[in-house]
Each structure stands twice: as structure tokens, then as C-alpha cells.
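so my prof wants the structure for this chain in the C-alpha cells format not the other one, which i didnt know existed until like an hour ago. anyway here's the sequence
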Amino acid sequence: MAAQEWDSDDEPLHDANDAMDEEEEDEEEDDEGEDEEEEDEDEEEDEEEEMTPDDMKDLGNQRYKTKDYRGAIEAYSSAIEADPSTPAYYTNRASAYMMVNDFKSAVTDCSKAIELDPNLAKAYVRKAKALLAQGNASEAIAAYTQCLVKDPGNAAVAKEKKETEEAVQRLALARQCLAEEKYTQTWRQIEIVEKSLPGIADIQMIKVESLCGLGRYQEAYSLTTSLMRTNSRLQGLLFWRAKCLYYMNQMPQAIKHLQEAMRNDPDNKTYRTEIKKWRALEAQKEAGNAAFKAGNLQEAITEWTACLEVDPSNRPFNAKLYANRGTAYSKLRRHQEAVDDCTRAIDLDPMYLKAYNRRAESLRCLDGEPNEMKVHLQGALRDYEKAMELDSEENQRDYKTKMRTVQTEIKRVGRKDFYKILGVSKDATDDEIKKAYKKGALRLHPDRMANKPEAEREAATAKFKELNEANEVLLDREKRQLYDSGVEPEDLDNPHAGRSHGGGMGGMDHDDLMRMFMHQQAGMGGMAAPRSDAVAAAAASTLAEAMAGAVAKRAVLIRAMTKPWPEPELTGGANPRDNPPDNPPKPTTKGYQRY
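here's what i got, hopefully its the right format
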């Protein structure tokens, strides 16, 4: 018979009995495997049952070395269950308890070890340290004393006791300084205490409070972050973390943290009082901001003044309030009060850039005797210098311009001052200038001086002339800008006046000239021989002097060319415009070098 052929897509069929035999074989193999696993488990249990208490202690020691402290506690507990009369098992477990911050259990184990062996020095020492970690210094010193009674010659324990007593005294002094708000002394003491008593929670919280008192809020906040990782349930931790955020002007986050602290301690009256105060403070500050934006300056001042009385300890918050109130005062032309407020803001925050700028502007607006005005302007100059240090590089040129203007104002003190003539501040509006002019003109008008003595009439006439000149300049926006930038009154009509004001050429200072010169030298490529820094500086200085000399000569030439011509003799009408000269003289440049 020919062999049966199978299609490639078909698979051969197995006999049903063969399949059943295979299943039975598999089940037998599974049963054998289960029996082997049960035997292994029994062997492990037998091994565990065969471990002695000392073996369990050794296992706990191994786990302790690998920092598996909870595993070590479990092993030591097994040893104690097997042999509750061995003191070493208790002292070892006490060490593991201390590593997981379970100091209460550590003290209990040490006490049991002492009960079993009153002469075991290790138990007294460990108990003392656990008590110190709980903040129980008096009992810790008592434990050291008991140890020395049993072992008087133990120099190491005597030393630890002495160090602990000194640290406890310093800790008490630190707490006293903290209560008296002597934060610097608190910090000094607590740093020494921490070396002898590391890891005590109470010390860490004193550090947080003293850092806040010193204004080092970011450091205090970072410390609370570390403490949250190690012991988030530490009493007062959430509250002081909230206070750090409060002092850092992060009020919404501060309130959230304080709410969490209240959930953990709902009966704490301090927390409830603080959160009410913070919410009221934030609301009052926002009311002041809204009034300021609406132009109600006096209302804004009232709201911010009330805010300042709430919490004098919040230095950053109060610094901003003082600066804001100073801005409102300056807008009301109450510049002395603005200066005072900005000074208070700087005292609270020496890095407050806006306060320096605002104080400088108000100092420039203060009036007084020449010596007083010089003092004010010199103060403004110092404020701009400080602001220049604090501000970004892109604003440096603006500060240089302001400082040059202030230097010009200092030189002008005692000379003709149009603002002083009109009796207005340097930031006076056009309406204020017009009002001041009208008042002065009515007082000094020649018609009102007709019956006065000749000397008085002449003095009034001179003042009236100055009054008109001041009014004309200050109401002309372009002339006023030139006058404020330092251009002399007699040069205000000069179309070229002010272009080179500030030194150098076209407003460039010596630093600009130096950079330009060095750039040109660098652009020469390999054509020029290398120069030393001293030679380059000397060359730049020579260039600056030459350019400055050219500017001075150019100014003289321009003044000569723009000098008004002599009035021609009139041949007819009274108006010189009706009789223009036929051949007006032409300006000459004879005697001047062309540039």
C-alpha cells in the first residue's frame, strides 16, 4: 500500500490515549516540583528555627551596617523574644530606634538594659543621647551622672557630660536671646550648641526663627525644606515654613501652608490669629494699590500707612509699602516726605533699586539755600551711582546721562535758577508754571511800582524781567529740556546748543571714545604694529583731548556766527521789519581755522 500523503496545511493527529498519558506525566512532574518547594520552605523554616538569639543579633548588626534600621529592629526584637535577659540586645535595638527618630522607644530599651545590668555604661550613655534628642536635657545629665557613679573612672563619659552641660547652658541662652529678639546672639550660640547636640529638632527650629529674625528668609525656607524631608511632623515646622513664605512676599502660598498647619492643630490660637492678620494685610495693601491706580493718592497713603502698623517685623513687605507711599508723596509734590519714605525702604532693604531711583528724583526737586541744595543734589548723585550698580547693563547709559545732569545742577547752584525765580519745583506742570508767573507778575508789575522809591522800582523791574525770562523758557518744552540738561540760559536760542553737552563729541564720554578708538585700532588688522595697553590708553587720551578741543573751537565759531546783528538805523516806520537793511553784513570766519 502506498504511504499516505499529508497536505502541507494539515497537522498530524495524536492518539487520545497518548494525550492523556502526557497530561498524567505533566501532573506527576508538577506534584514533584511542589513537593520540592515545600521541602525547601520547610528547610528555611528549620534554619530560622535553628538560629540562636546571638545569630539574630548578628543579623541585626548586618542590617544596621547597611542602614536597614527597621530590618535591624526586627532582628533584634526576634533575639529579645528568644532571650529577653540579655542587655546587649536592648541597647542594640535602642541604637536602631534612634536612627529612625523613635527616641521614646530607645529610652525604654536603655532603661530595660540598665535594669538587667546596672553597670552597663553603654546603656546610660545611649539613654542620655536619646533623652537629649527628645529635648530632655535634665534627665540626660542625670543618666550621665548615674553612669559615673557606677564607673567613676570613665573619662569619656565625664567629657560627654561636661560638653552636654555646657551645650545645655548655651541652648538656654539661645532661647533667652530669641525671646528678646537678639537674633545675632541667638545664631552664634545655636551654631556652637549644634556641634555638641546634632540633630535635635528644637535646635533646628530655633535656627529657622533666628534666620527669619536676621532677614535671611531664603536660608530659613531651605532649612524648613530639609526638615520636611526628615521629620515633616515636627511641631511648628509648617507654621514657620508659612512665615518664611510670608516674609518672602509670597502671600498666597504662605496662607496655604498656614491652613495646612491649622488642619494639623485646629486648636492653635496663634495660627488663627496670624491667618486673620495676613488676610487683612493683603486686602488693605490691595486697597491702597487700587486707590493709587485710580488717582486717589491721599486715600492710597492712608491705606498703606495702616498696613505699615500691622507687622513691623515683615521687612520686605514694609519696604515696598514705604516705597509705594513715597511715590504717592512725590506725585503730590511732597518731596521731603517722599525722600523720608524711600530712606526707610532702603533701611529695610539695602538692595531696593526702585527706592534709590525715587529718592534721587525727589532730592533733585527739594528747594532750599544753596548749601542745602548742593547737599540734596550730591545725595541724588550717590543714589544714581548705587542704582547703577544694582541695575542691568542695558540701563547704564541712562544713569550716566542722569548723573551728568545732576553734576550740571550742582555747578548751577547759586546762579540764575528759573525754577526758583518762579517759586516752583523742577517737576512743575505747565499749569503750575503759569499760575506762579501770574502771581509774580501781579506783584512785580511796573504799574504797581509806580509810587515806590527808585531803588525799589529798579529792583522790581529786574525781577520782573527775570520772571518773564523764566516763564518763557519753562513753558517752551524744547528750551526747558535744554535748560534742564545744563545748557546756559544765554545759549538756549543757539540751534547747536546741547549737541555736545556732557563732554566728548556728540554726547560721548571718555569711555565711549576709548572704546571707539580701540575698535578702530583693532580694525586695522595687521597693518599697525602691536601696542601696549599704556600706549593705547595714551593715544586714546590724546584723541579725546584733540576732539574736545575741536568741539570747544567749534562752539566759539558757532556763537560768533549766530550773534545778533546790530540794529540798523530806522529811516521811516517805528518797526525795524519795515526797514530791512539793504546790505546786511555777512558773518566772517577770518581768524578761525576750518574743520
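also thought this was worth mentioning. Residues 1-25, 500-510, 523-542, 560-595 have pLDDT under 50 and may be disordered.
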